[in-house]
Amino acid sequence: MEKVVVSIVLSVLLGLVLLLLGLFLGFSVFGGREKSSPFECGFDPVGSSRVPFSLRFFLLAVIFVVFDVEIVLLFPIVLGVGGCWLWVNSYLVLFVFLGILLVGVVHEWREGSLEWGE
């Protein structure tokens, strides 16, 4: 019990030291109009910053994030298949999960969200 308390106290102290070090090193006394503006290259901004973006690109980015998370969820199962420690129920859950993902990909494909060019 005593070792647990010591490790918790050391972890909290290390976190506080790193936080204070980051605040101290991140503090800047040099500032001005150029440093506070979003354009530091010396040119004045041209045009409006409210340019409309492509909704198709946004949907494609969301699809990418969904399938990126899916890879993270499948990674432990891939490691388990190599070691043969998965049970029959685990395989059933794996195939249901992959089936749901496959239905999602087919839906996005038929909807046209996966098309890059028009």
TrEMBL record:
Mainly resides where?
A: membrane
Annotated GO MF terms: NADH dehydrogenase (ubiquinone) activity
**According to its UniProt record, which reaction does this protein catalyse?**
a ubiquinone + NADH + 5 H(+)(in) = a ubiquinol + NAD(+) + 4 H(+)(out)
> What are the record keywords, sorted?
Electron transport, Membrane, Mitochondrion, NAD, Respiratory chain, Translocase, Transmembrane, Transmembrane helix, Transport, Ubiquinone
Keyword set includes Membrane: yes
Instruction: Relate the protein's function as given in its record.
Output: Core subunit of the mitochondrial membrane respiratory chain NADH dehydrogenase (Complex I) which catalyzes electron transfer from NADH through the respiratory chain, using ubiquinone as an electron acceptor. Essential for the catalytic activity of complex I.
Q: Which PANTHER family match?
A: NADH-UBIQUINONE OXIDOREDUCTASE CHAIN 3
Per the similarity annotation, which family is this?
Answer: Belongs to the complex I subunit 3 family.
Task: Report the protein name in the record.
Answer: NADH-ubiquinone oxidoreductase chain 3
Q: What's the encoding gene here?
A: nad3
